[in-house]
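so my prof wants the structure for this chain in the tokens format not the other one, which i didnt know existed until like an hour ago. anyway here's the sequence
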Amino acid sequence: MIRIAGLFAAFLILAGASFSPASAQDKTITVFAAASMKNALDEINAAYTARTGVKIVASYAASSALAKQIEQGAPADVFVSADTDWMDYAVSKKTINEPSRVNLLGNSIVLIAPKDSKIDNVSIAQGFDLAKLAGDGRIATGDVKSVPVGKYAKAALEKLGAWQAAEPKFAMAESVRAALTLVARGEAALGIVYATDAKVEPGVKIVGSFPADSHPAIIYPVAATTTAKSETSDYLAFLRSSAAKTILEKYGFKFLVSPST
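here's what i got, hopefully its the right format
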């Protein structure tokens, strides 16, 4: 009887171990997120893993590239886009679980220059001469045909009457972080990026801010994919939590939903 009791106790210990937090470490959620989300989302993901044991694997790139990768079958559970257009695209391709979609964040675009640049305190208003300001240098932003920050930049410059003269000076980057790097390295005299990106790059400074009404509202929708794992709903809930809000606002994002506890 003692031997049987001992074996039964051992079985209970092993059975209990299978439901311990350690088992969550075998689970992984894959997140495809806009490049501008990297610093904030890395911190959020670390906090989520610390709480749950669930590992988060994040892939950062331009929203356009990510939407197309998901369309082609890339194994993503969550998509965070830097604009509604690319989320709409993913929905149209039936790769997104539309009821899970939430407009989570807002942002703004700014004009940046290398940290040691003499350019400073630029008044961005109707008729400002961006081409003249750049001189012989280039202006970096995301590709205006596909990368959200580039689309926002072009829309703003068109409304302010500065696009036509400045267009030949633009260096179109594959993502907002690539544009940020060009300016930080001094390879571009100016750049147009999100305020949140400028905040995390010590090699640049903000020299001007674009009026909010000069471009479409900058909205970051988040959603689960149609192939998402069951654990994804809990992760999405965490993105809407007060804990996530604190982190996101620290990096300069605008939280657009009422936070959960």
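also thought this was worth mentioning. The chain has twelve helices and eleven strands.
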